[in-house]
User: Fold Cell division cycle 20.2, cofactor of APC complex-like from Gossypium hirsutum.
Amino acid sequence: MNKGREEVKDDDPKQEPPQTKTTETEHYYQVVNKGTREEQRLQIEELDEWTRILAFKNKPPTPVELFPSGHTTSFAHPEKPLKPRRHIPQSSERTLDALDLMDDFYLNLLDWGSSNVLVITLGNTFYFWDASDSSTSELVTIDDDNGPVTSMSWALDGRHIAIGLNKSEVQLRDSASNRQLCTLRAYKGHRQEVCGLKWSASRQQLASGGNDILVHIWDMSKASSNSPTQWIHRLEDHTYGI
Assistant:
């Protein structure tokens, strides 16, 4: 036995096995992988710290119900009832013959009164049609010097009617007695036909519009059958016939 060579004992715990090329390579990758895993862990911890900014530490509290389920409050808005659909007939209920009805865009030649009576002008003659019994009657015929009739309007009382004429005048008539009450004419009044009439709710004032683009307001309490009646207001800024 050679004394110069140290004897190797297998049971020495401090003695490491000889390093080979293969074990050195495995050791290198273990160190590298360990460093990579450590970096990944630090990155995950850093990302987790940022996400915790928007996270609840504890669960949000359960909302408290002001009213128990199934309870109906007294101030709840009731549902609006559905409006019934209106039936629109496809054909006229009744057709009236209207011979000599003037075809003019600016004229107003019929009006339905509060007493359910329709007044219409055919030529220079006024006719009434009562919707309650379908009866027809004649009111008056305007002479050619003042005609033709260019507008008309029932007062709210269903008795008095205003008549606009081509001669720039307005007549007020009582349909019950079939007589003329007064004529509305004035200095610097309408210069062309009166084609629009409208009563006030109190029947104390009457507005008349003409093809001369003028509007006059008349005070019926001052109207007289014996003298011309002056309008109380005059509107003249329109650009078309009234």
